[in-house]
Structures are given as C-alpha cells and as structure tokens.
Amino acid sequence: MNMTALGTSTVDEECPPLENATTLQPSQLITRLTHVCRYDRLERPIEYDLVTKERYPTRVNARIYIYYMQNLNSDLLQFKMHALLQLSFLDKRLAFSNYAPTRKDNILGQKQMSERLWLPHIFFANERESNILGTDEKDVLVSISPQGQVIFSTRLQATLYCWMNFKKFPFDEQSCSTVLESWMYNTTELTLHWEDKTPISFDPDMRLTEYNMQRYWYNETIVNSNDIHLRHGAFYGNYSSLSFTVHLNREIGFYLMDYFLPSMMIVAISWVSFWLQADASPPRIMLGTSTMLSFITLSSSQSKTLPKVSYIKVSEVWFLGCTFFIFGSLVEFAFVNTIWRRKENIELKKVNSKYIIKSTLTPRPARREMGLNNQSRTRSCSSLDNIVSSTESVMNGNVNPGFNNYLTVHNLPIITTQSADTVSIASNPNSTGHVINMDDNNKDNKTGENTTFTTMTPQEIAMWIDRRSRFLFPLMFLGFNCLYWTFVYCF
Length: 491
Hints:
37% of the residues lie in helices and 24% in strands. It is α+β, with helices and mostly antiparallel strands. Strands 3, 4, 5, 7, 8, 9, 11 and 12 form an 8-stranded mixed beta sheet that branches. The chain has a 4-stranded antiparallel beta sheet with strand order 6-10-14-13, with no helix packed on it.
C-alpha cells in the first residue's frame, strides 16, 4: 500500500491534473496545459485526416497593421517601418474548454507566456535589421481561446531593402515590398496565408513628406530553397511566403522650388553678358564662370542623396541642358570678343546672318580670294594691248614663233578694242585692217557686274551677334523646356 501510494504521488507531481481547471488561475492553468507531460513546445501542432490519417500542415494566418513608415532612403535603397504583426493558428493541445467549460474568456499573457508555447518562426526576407519594440518588457501579446486558437501579436521595427529605379528622378515612382517567409518549416509542415478580412491596414494619421502612397497589394507565393538559392538555413524544399507592396510616387513640389526654378534663374543670369560690351572681358568672364559654378553646386547638392547608378536620370538631362546654355554664353563671349579685337573691316556680300557668320568665321581667305580675282581682272584687261600689238606685228610680217597668238578671258564683259585705222576700215570696206571683238562666253552670268559689297567694322559685327543672342538663347531654352516637360509627363 505504501508503494502504491508513493507511485501515485510521484505521477501526480510529474503531471499535474486538470480536473479542477475551473478554479485555477490563468497562469496556473497555462502552466498545467504546457507541462512537459502534455505539451512539447518544439513540436508543431499536428492535425490528422480522420479517414486517411494524413498529417495536415499547420495553417498560420497573418495580419499586419502599419502605423509608421519613414520616407525612402534613396542612398541606401531602404525604408523603415513600424508595424504590428499578428499571427494566428490553432493548437488543440491548449484547448481548455473540455477541462473548464465555464471559462469563456481568453487567456492573455506577455513575453513570459509566449516562451512556453510553440510559435511559428517567421522572418522578413528583405530585411536589413529588425527588432521588437518595447522598453523594459517587449511589446508581445499572446491570446489563447478556449478552443485552442492562439493569436500572437508583436510590435516591431524593421529596416527593409527596396530596389529603386531612378531613371525618371525626381518624377519617379517606387514600389517597395515587405516579404515574410517561414524559416524552419516548408510547405509540407506549415503554410502561411493572409487573413480573409483586412490583412493589410494603415494608420489613418500616417503621413509621408516626400512621397504619396497611391495603392498597395498583397499576394501569397512559394519560394524554393536549394543548393543555389539557399535562403532557409540547411533545409531544402518549398517554403510559404507572404508579401505586400506599396506603390509610392514622389512629390515634386520640393524639387520645383529648390532645384528647377533656381536653375532656370541661374541660366537666365548668364544671359546678362549679352547686354555688356564685347570688350568688357572681366565682368563677362566673371558672370559666366560664377553662374556655371553656382549651377554645378546646386546640382551636386541635389544628387548627393542618390546612389551612383550607371544609367542616365531625367535630372541629369536637365543638368546637361542647363550646362549647355551657360557654357554657350561663355563661348558666345569668346567668339564676339575675338571679332571685336580684329583690325580690318569685313566686306559682306549681303547684310544677313548667313553672310555675316560666314565672313566672320573665314574673313582672311575671303579677302585673299577677292584680291586675287581683282588682280586677275586687271591683268586680263591690260593684256589686250599686248594682243593688239602682236596682231599688228603679224600684219607687218614680224611673227614670233614663241608667242601664242590667242587670249582666254573668264567672266569679263564684252570688250571691243578699236584703233583709228579700224574706224576708217569700218567706214571704207575696201581698206585693209583688222577688228578684234572679244565676247563674254558666259553672257548669262551678270551677277558679278551688279554685285555690291558692304563694309562693317568688327565692333559692329560683335554688337550685331550680341543682339541676336539676346533673343536666340531664350527661344532655344524655351524649346528645351517644352521638350523636357513633354518627355517627363508623356513617357
């Protein structure tokens, strides 16, 4: 009898009874339910098919509530999020309705209670770092229903990786995802699902300063872990995954006021040099270089927060366009200053843009060619006397075999050379004499006779170019703006 009583007492101490579960305190009830004789926290909840006796995978439903989201950190390609993650599953080993039918309330506990239970190991697949919030006690809450439904809630902070595309910066749109995956159990043992009702919710007071959230969506997928994509420790197989994505577009108000409008003003300031005199080298050089340096400083301060990507961004197209116009004003000054310092006047066929630019770009070759043409005309006209004298020598019988008795005339008007004897021959046909008539072979080419040249001083040409630049540069910049903003909003 003593041995039997001793044995019964030993069993009772090792496995506390649940007959008086109605009178137990919640902590006492959980302690007895999770005793090692009834509960193993390393073993997942197991359910069997009553017919086939097949084990079902544990179904874990997830819900997430986001009450804070920090603006995207473009330089590090990440964003921060404060959220409340809630996981629910059924564990019939914790059902106490059969032992205490009168207990209708859920049993609530914190971190100490969660350490006695089996919980699914869920992690953020795209996290940089994460931690559970709380000061002395971590913000963890566990609720157990009489039927064994377990709800695990934790408030956490996570820094998540987000791949961003900056081709249209600062008019870009970004899609950032949050991915939750099972760490230990594959799909044969555990599956993750979103709750049927409002799985994703946001704090109505949540605000983003630089971005505006357009929409969000969520899905359930399966990821594979193998020798190549080993993302779940040493375990191979298919793992259940949950994800939700927020679609954000950048607000451009800041960039309009702090980047685009100041850059337009800097470009316009560089055009002030067109109103200065062409020989005012110090102010025009200082104005051009200062505007160039100011714009480079403005652009570099704006691009410091961006990663060093290999493709061209829309903001860089704007930077190159504005730099081209500022640099163009410096080139224009160098051009007109070079013309201003010339000594010789420039002869123009017509006073228009074509001939002025052409004459200023190649002034000396044009004058040499013009001088050679004038000299050839003078020599051609003066050679007529030689022709007449050689003809008279032939008439007299003095023939010089080494002299060619012919003349080639190019682009000359009709010239008739007559002597006194020629006039008498014309009046008396019986007399002896020679008349030489030289007709212009190109009778239709009469532009050379009526062409008049206008002479302009280098200073007049320099001022003429400055006056045209005052209107040409703003019109070109206006066209660049139209093309730029059309591209931004249409593509």
